[in-house]
Hints:
Radius of gyration: 17 Å
Oligomer: single chain
Structural class: alpha/beta
Strand content: 15-25%
Number of domains: 2
Shape: globular
Bound molecules: D-glutamic acid
Number of helices: 11
Order of helices and strands: EHEHEHEHEHHEHHEHEHEEH
Number of strands: 10
CATH topology of the largest domain: Rossmann fold
Amino acid sequence: MKIGMFDSGIxxxxxxxxxxRQMPDEEYxxxxxxxxxxxxxxxxxxxxxxxxxxxxxxxxxGCEAVVVACNTATSAAVTFLREKYPVPVIGIxxxxxxxxxxxxxxxxxxxxxxxxxxxxxxxxxxxxEDACHRVDMLALPGLVGFAEKGDFDxxxxxxxxxxxxxxxxxxxxxxxxxxxxxxxxxxxLLKTYFDKDICVTDGKEGTIRHLKDVLEKKDAxxxxxxxxxxxxxxxxxxxxxxxxxxxxxxRHLDKA
Length: 256
Ligand code: DGL
């Protein structure tokens, strides 16, 4: 089966990697909206338009299900996409529910883009799940830009994070929720700002498990042998260097 995924850029590779692990025999079409990255600094209306374009494009390639591999686009556009398109649309959102079960001591910090932190979807999720009021949110608007340059641990990145966390008492958190798929690329570095026993979690596993369930119910046969096609805002990526860049980032996630 052909499965489409889109993100503003390289963040959704986190979900692609997990999909290849859980469902290695499908055919994947990965759309990085490089013309409009970062989504986190656009308006909700703009993100909805870009998500619509990405989904329409993936369907035109024959995809029978679409994963919104971006917390920001899920927050701004998943309801709209589900109403408009006749295929399953699976979105990722910050793993607040699993985080609350993971540790019952101390507080939980969700880091995400400014749009995700501002939008109603995350506020509703926290209100629904967090009866003890243990969850805080923090926007990290600068990280996506570094990630798109393939810069995951330079002095500049560290300086940025030093500044962001300077005003935060990170010792009061036992769980860090990565609420933006780009942030998985910075996992090791982010951990250094918290206590040694900090648990880091994200929504990738649950999202792909949900995709798998939906497809099993649809009784969709497998076919594709794990091949992946890449697009940048609707243009097929054919350059060897660019394909190698995406593949190296999927490998990098093991070390990140
Ligand atoms: N990777 C995205 C997310 O999960 C969006 C990053 C951005 O483009 O701002 O939110």
